[in-house]
Amino acid sequence: QVAAASGHTVVLVDQSEEILKKSTKGIEESLKRVTKKKFADKPEAGAEFIEKTLKNLTTSTDAVAVVHSTDLVIEAIVENMEVKNELFKRLDKFAPEYVRTIFASNTSSLQITQLANSTTRQDRFGGLHFFNPVPMMKLVEVIKTPMTSQKTFESLVDFSKAVGKSPVSCKDTPGFIVNRLLVPYMMEAVRLFERGDASKEDIDVAMKLGAGYPMGPFELLDYVGLDTSKYIIDGWHSLEPNNPLFAPSPLLNKLVEEKKLGKKTGEGFYKYK
């Protein structure tokens, strides 16, 4: 959406036409919300903005066919190293002759270096971590591996700026900047609650009123998805099993096992209607 709105030609790829229709509808609804604020007094300009943005956007279920004429591929699929590697490996076979084609991952927790190693273009591979909800959040973390060329890195920074974001740079370290600080913070909140030191409600209120956070850690966990949070902490724990900040949580594991994953399932640490 943000790439199309900033004048880039975008092909959105997913597994089925049904998913793509749902995604396109979601983008249209999101654009309407954006135009209400951006063009509050100019409804005609708002309608033109939506039409122009959607013209820049097409869809496909065939990633291999699309990659032939692409300058930048941004992967944003499930947080699973094996699945991501398989996709990049497949795409790499069909885009080797295009020296300019850069591969990037939107992963929030997996090693970019490991993903890059599944391809033959380690110098043209980096991380582009956008933040949810992307149309509203200004930040993009640009991740440079030891193999990422300076030209590739600069191209990713330039692209981030071109879509109206504020890029920050980080080495390929677990969680990059934001999640490396945020996930252990959320896990410490869960441990505080597990020990019975404070209620989850009071912990949330304390962090909102005492630290100025828009959401408390339990509200944020439910928003992010408890399954996603568990996947991240489990992955880091396997990398650094002796790091107490990466220790798994029995309560988080239990909730995920019970399919209480947060807002998306109607219940996590809190219940939602």
From TrEMBL:
It comes from the Eukaryota. It is found in: Mitochondrion matrix. Mitochondrial fatty acid beta-oxidation enzyme that catalyzes the third step of the beta-oxidation cycle for medium and short-chain 3-hydroxy fatty acyl-CoAs (C4 to C10). Plays a role in the control of insulin secretion by inhibiting the activation of glutamate dehydrogenase 1 (GLUD1), an enzyme that has an important role in regulating amino acid-induced insulin secretion. Plays a role in the maintenance of normal spermatogenesis through the reduction of fatty acid accumulation in the testes. Keywords: Acetylation, Differentiation, Fatty acid metabolism, Hydroxylation, Lipid metabolism, Mitochondrion, NAD, Oxidoreductase, Spermatogenesis, Transit peptide. CoA binds at S30, K37, S108. SUPFAM superfamilies: 6-phosphogluconate dehydrogenase C-terminal domain-like, NAD(P)-binding Rossmann-fold domains. It comes from Brachypteracias leptosomus (short-legged ground-roller). The lineage of its organism: Eukaryota, Metazoa, Chordata, Craniata, Vertebrata. Residues 1-173 form the 3-hydroxyacyl-CoA dehydrogenase NAD binding domain. The keyword Cell membrane does not apply. It holds the Pfam family 3HCDH_N. Residues 175-272 form the 3-hydroxyacyl-CoA dehydrogenase C-terminal domain. One of its GO terms (biological process) is fatty acid beta-oxidation. The record marks H129 as: Important for catalytic activity. Its EC number is 1.1.1.35. This is Hydroxyacyl-coenzyme A dehydrogenase, mitochondrial. GO terms for cellular component: mitochondrial matrix. Belongs to the 3-hydroxyacyl-CoA dehydrogenase family.
